[in-house]
C-alpha cells in the first residue's frame, strides 16, 4: 500500500490515485464489467458517428446534434476510463500534476456541455412537435452551428476556473488522492490552504449550468406532453410519448446521478467513501453507453443507416 507523503514542503509534481481505498483486493474484478461498458459506449457512439457521416439522408440538424452528443460521450469516456483500467490492471497509480488538472477540466466542462446538449435537443423536439410548420425555418444548419458554439463556449469558460483555482493551491498534506479520478474536491482537500472558495465556485457554477439546463429541458418536455395529449390521430400519442419519454428518462438519470453524487459527498461521514467513487465512474460510462441506443438505434432512419453500413462491410 502506498502511503501519503504527509505535510511535505516540496512542490507536488504528481499525484497517486488510490481507487477504492477500503476494497483494493477486489477492484480487479470490477474491471471486467467496466471494460464491457467502455467497449459498448465507444463502439455504439463510434458506429452512430460513422453512420451519420456516411448516410447522406442523415445530414440534418437533429442528427448533427446527436453527433455532438456522441463526440462528448467519447471524450468523457477516454478522459476517465482508460486511466481507471490502467490502475486496476497495471497498478499505474501516478498521474502528473498537469494531467490531473487537465482531466479535472475536461470532466467539468464536458459534463456540462452534455447537459446543455440535452437541453438543445429537447428544444429541437419541442419545435418539431409543437411548431412543426416552423421547424424547417427554425432548426437549420446555422442554428446547429450557433448552438454548438454556445454549448462549447459557455461551459468551457465557466468551468475553466475550477482547475485553475485548484492548481494554484499549495499541496502540503500529501499527494495521495483517494479516488480513481481527479475530482476537484478529492484533489483540493490535500491542500493546506482554505478551499472554501473552490468548493463554493464549483457548487454555484455547477448548479447554475446544470440546473438551468434541467429546468429548460423539463419545460420543453412539459409543453410537448401538453400538445401530444391533444393529438387525436391514432397511434400518434403513443409514438410521441414513447420517443420523448425515453429521452426524458435518460436525461433524468443523467441529472439524478449528479444529485446522488452531491448528496453522498455531503454525507460522506455516514456513507462509505467507495460509494461516491463508484458512482462517479459509472456516471462516465452508463450515460455514454445508453445515449446512442436510446437516441440513435431506436430511430428508424438511423437504424436503416446502420443496416446499410453493416451491409457494406
TrEMBL record:
Per the UniProt entry, what is one GO biological process? cellular response to lipid
Task: Give the molecular function GO annotations.
Answer: G protein-coupled receptor activity; olfactory receptor activity
Descriptive protein name = Olfactory receptor family 56 subfamily A member 4
List the keywords (alphabetical): G-protein coupled receptor, Membrane, Olfaction, Receptor, Sensory transduction, Transducer, Transmembrane, Transmembrane helix
Membrane association type? Multi-pass membrane protein
Q: Which Pfam families match?
A: 7tm_4 (PF13853)
Annotated localization: Membrane
Q: Tell me, in one coarse class, where this protein mainly resides.
A: membrane
Q: Which PROSITE patterns match?
A: G_PROTEIN_RECEP_F1_2 (PS50262)
Name of the gene encoding the protein in the UniProt record: OR56A4
What are the annotated GO cellular component locations? plasma membrane
Q: Where is the G-protein coupled receptors family 1 profile domain?
A: 44-295
Show the InterPro entries listed in the entry. GPCR_Rhodpsn (IPR000276), GPCR_Rhodpsn_7TM (IPR017452), Olfact_rcpt (IPR000725), OR51/52/56-like (IPR050402)
Span-the-membrane segments of this chain are 30-53, 65-90, 102-123, 204-225, 245-267
Amino acid at each position: 500500500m502506498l502511503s501519503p507523503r504527509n505535510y511535505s514542503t516540496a512542490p507536488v509534481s504528481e499525484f497517486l490515485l488510490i481507487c477504492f481505498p477500503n476494497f483494493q483486493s477486489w477492484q480487479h474484478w470490477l474491471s471486467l464489467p467496466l471494460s464491457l461498458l467502455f467497449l459498448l459506449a465507444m463502439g455504439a457512439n463510434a458506429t452512430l458517428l460513422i453512420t451519420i457521416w456516411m448516410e447522406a439522408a442523415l445530414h440534418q440538424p437533429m442528427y448533427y446534434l446527436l453527433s455532438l452528443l456522441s463526440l462528448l460521450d467519447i471524450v468523457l469516456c477516454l478522459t476517465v476510463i482508460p486511466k481507471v483500467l490502467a490502475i486496476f490492471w497495471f497498478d499505474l497509480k501516478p498521474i502528473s500534476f498537469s494531467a490531473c488538472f487537465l482531466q479535472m477540466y475536461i470532466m467539468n466542462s464536458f459534463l456540462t456541455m452534455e447537459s446543455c446538449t440535452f437541453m438543445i435537443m429537447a428544444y429541437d423536439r419541442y419545435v418539431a412537435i409543437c411548431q412543426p410548420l416552423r421547424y424547417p425555418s427554425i432548426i437549420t444548419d446555422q442554428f446547429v452551428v450557433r448552438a454548438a458554439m454556445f454549448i462549447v463556449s459557455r461551459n468551457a469558460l465557466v468551468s475553466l476556473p475550477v482547475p485553475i483555482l485548484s492548481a494554484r493551491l499549495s499541496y502540503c498534506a500529501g499527494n495521495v488522492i483517494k479516488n480513481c479520478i481527479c475530482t476537484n474536491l478529492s484533489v483540493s482537500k490535500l491542500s493546506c490552504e482554505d478551499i472554501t472558495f473552490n468548493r463554493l465556485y464549483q457548487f454555484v457554477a455547477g448548479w447554475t449550468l446544470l440546473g438551468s439546463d434541467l429546468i429548460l429541458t423539463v419545460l420543453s418536455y412539459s409543453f410537448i406532453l401538453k400538445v401530444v395529449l391533444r393529438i387525436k390521430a391514432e397511434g400518434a400519442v403513443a409514438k410521441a410519448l414513447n420517443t420523448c419519454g425515453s429521452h426524458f428518462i435518460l436525461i433524468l438519470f443523467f441529472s439524478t446521478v449528479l444529485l446522488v453524487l452531491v448528496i453522498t459527498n455531503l454525507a460522506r461521514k455516514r456513507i462509505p467513501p467507495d460509494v461516491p467513487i463508484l458512482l462517479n465512474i459509472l456516471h462516465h460510462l452508463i450515460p455514454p453507453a445508453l445515449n446512442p441506443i436510446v437516441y440513435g438505434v431506436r430511430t428508424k432512419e438511423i437504424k436503416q443507416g446502420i443496416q446499410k453500413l453493416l451491409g457494406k462491410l
